[in-house]
Amino acid sequence: MLFVRKKVGGRIMLRIAVILVLLPTTWAAAIHLYVSPQGSDTNTGLDPSTPLKTLQRARDRIDEPGILGNEIYVELMSGYHDLLIPLNLTHGYTALVTFRSYQHEEVHVTGGKRITPSLFKPVTDPVILERIPEEAHEKVRQIHLPDAGITDYGTMSVYGFYRERIAPLELFINGNPLRLARWPNDFFINIVNVPDGRRGVRFGYNNSRDARWVGEKEPWTYGYWFFSWADQSAKIASVNTSSHEITLTAPTKYGLKTGHLQKKDNIKVGDAQQGGYFRVINMLSELDQPGEYYIDRSTGILYMWPNTPTGYLNDSDIIYASILDDCISIAIGANNITFQDFTIEACRRFGIDGTDLESVSFLNLEAKNLGSYGIRSAGDSRNITVSGCEIHDTDGGINVSGGDRIDLIPSGNVIEDNHIYKVGRETSVGADGISHSGVNNIIRNNYLHHGTYSCIMWSGNDHIMEYNHFEDCCQNATDGGAVHCGRDWTMRGNHIRYNYFQNTLRTWPGGQIRGIMLDDEFSSVTIEHNVFFTNEVHANIGGGRDTIIRYNVFYNATEISVDVDGRGLNGSDLPELEAALKAVPYTDALWSSRYPKLAAMAYDNVPGAPRGNQIYKNLYYTVNGTRLINYHRTYIVNNTYFNLTDNYQVAYYYLYYIYIRMFVYFLFLGNQIYKNIYYMVKGSKLISYHGAYLANSTYFNVTDNFQVQSSDFVDPEKYNFQLQGKAKAWAAQNGFDEPIPFNQVGPRFAPGPTYLNKGMTIL
After folding, report:
1. Class of residue 516 by CB neighbours under 10 A (exposed 0-12, middle 13-18, buried 19+)
2. Positions in the chain short of pLDDT 50
């Protein structure tokens, strides 16, 4: 106030004085409502000695006269608060309403039903014992779910590839999830033939184990049926043990193909050998190891092998079955709500879900054992804060969107200081650590690791992703990135800076894995001041424009530091890209002033050309012949450019070798190469599609990058990339700042509820 008074004078000071007089009479008193699993909903809840029992009753009390309109704290007392129905918050509030743990006690809000361990019995039915593998006979236990008050078993459903999962009933023991019985347990089976072609529903395999699958009541499969970046579950219609064929009830999204999967570490085979592998799930006959379960929905009996240290249950074990779809649901447009300092778990879909929210905060929560995202704030949500949360063992971490892309109004959303890991329990592709979109989301100081696909998937404008640590992302799929976006020219103004990208490596057949993936002509991202180490590809520019890559450390890429291409020149995605361009006012005053290079595309007769990219003043260290830049050429394998038909390979005659040289600035259309006879040896090719013409400054201006040795960093093996030697001298001459210290990325304080009393220990 002193600053304002000094700046603007007496008239404003008078107004401030009036406000100060009014404030004591208009301040809302803070009201505390106490809730305990041992309480009673007939109590007032206004004192710790007379707590309410349920969150639903606390929600109703908030709306009562004398309470509504005040600042309210719903104090959750120690224990498990099991929701009988979802906690639906049906409107917003004029004053802040906070749901939090009372005095930082251990609090769990669950959407599940607790089951007494003694209700689980050994299996004695000889028919069931005949079906269960012999090694499981002694350990498997069964329960008649209605005896535990459970009659809603949920349903098996299609999930995978960006389809949000509503799980069937799942089981958790001492906070650890079990999974549906499956085989193979940790690998897949190759498809060896597809009798009805790609779009059929039959496929063959080489395995006689299928004899035990006969008679299964509800068999399903899960696999990467065609691409290694598209997973999907699929229901089995029949199993033919004579021909070793499975018939599905419906085609998969991209069809079927034969597989080439092998048990090798760091598989680096390309697109032609991706996909075509599956596993069977939800089969009692495959309940063969600890941590697996199966529900016979016709009898209501659940069978499981406990995932406890001994493989048996004791009376102290905490066992939950998930019942509700969503634990907490917030009405469209609700505002002024905070959730703080407790665990939310055991729901079949979202932990907390809302749309078009305003000023809602999620602070120091733990979200785990959920069927989909832990926290979701969809639509045009504004001023959302997700801070200090621990999210794991879900199918997605945080999903937030907001802001106005037409008028480029920032969302005010902040996602910071979270620890997010193992968020692809069942789904891989689409179960992102953070999924965010809109305008100007701030994503900072998070630690994301052990993700099945992208650790961050994003879209929109003017976002900032900084001071995050990414490790071991994209573990179950290929052709992805730890930070991943794609197929839009208009989503500009984004910054990825001051992050660490570590160990993003390919372990399945298919396309490359990148630290940062700008897919399908995504454009105009500034990537600067990051440290990349031991990734397959540190970053790529997938045919887009106007991206700047500068002031980064690229250390020890296993394949390439930066991969670039000109895929837009073949025009395959042009209709979709042009539709996105026309959907925004990219030539009006606001957009053209913010993104002048985008406005200039209105006059570009080759909009798919990868113009204006700049890669400069990066430090890089490479081994084993890896390169700083790879100019990718596969996009020119296109019959619009080179129509290859009816060429015939022979065994003994060498007739001709054709080499096509492409020049920059020349659009090569209409070439035809057909009806030639050719002979090849030692892996030589009929055609070489050369990509060197991309190496020109109009497309990719690559300048002033400096190659160093490992010794030019203080101790890379211990994440110390402080410069020394010739790197330090070069940096001083080129305005290259010291790389961000490792202790400045990731959470700045211990994430999760206080009772966990744990934080991040990063060696």
Report:
1. buried
2. 1-26, 266, 634, 636-642, 650-669, 682, 689, 759-763
User: Which residue type is seen at 137?
Assistant: H
Residue for token pair 């490359």: 512
DSSP 737: P
CB of 402 closer than 8 Å to CB of 380 = yes
The pLDDT tens digits of the residues spanning 28-50 come to 579 999 999 999 999 999 999 99
Please tell me what DSSP assigns to residue 689.
-
Q: Please state, for a pLDDT cut of 70, what percent of the chain lies above it.
A: 87
DSSP assignment letter at 22:
H
CB-based contact 712:724 (threshold 8 Å)? yes
- Pick the closest to residue 542 from 526, 518, 524, 515 (CA basis): 518
Burial label, 570 (beta-carbon count in 10 A; 0-12, 13-18, 19+): middle
Predicted pLDDT at 627: 81
As a whole number of angstroms, the distance between CA 639 and CA 233 comes to 34
347, 376 Cβ separation under 8 angstroms = no
The 3-class SS string of 110-175 reads ECEEEECHHHCEECCCHHHHHHCCHHHCCCCEEEEHHHHCCCCCCCCCCCCCCCCCCCCCCEEECC
Helix (H) or strand (E) holding 31: strand 30-35
Tokens of 109: 């809000």
Q: Please give the Cα distance from 354 to 92 (Å, whole number).
A: 12
Residue 571 confidence (pLDDT): 86
d(CA 599, CA 343): 48
DSSP letter string, 460-518: SBS-EEES-EEES---S-SSEEEEEEES-SS---EEEES-EEE-----SSSS-EEEEEE
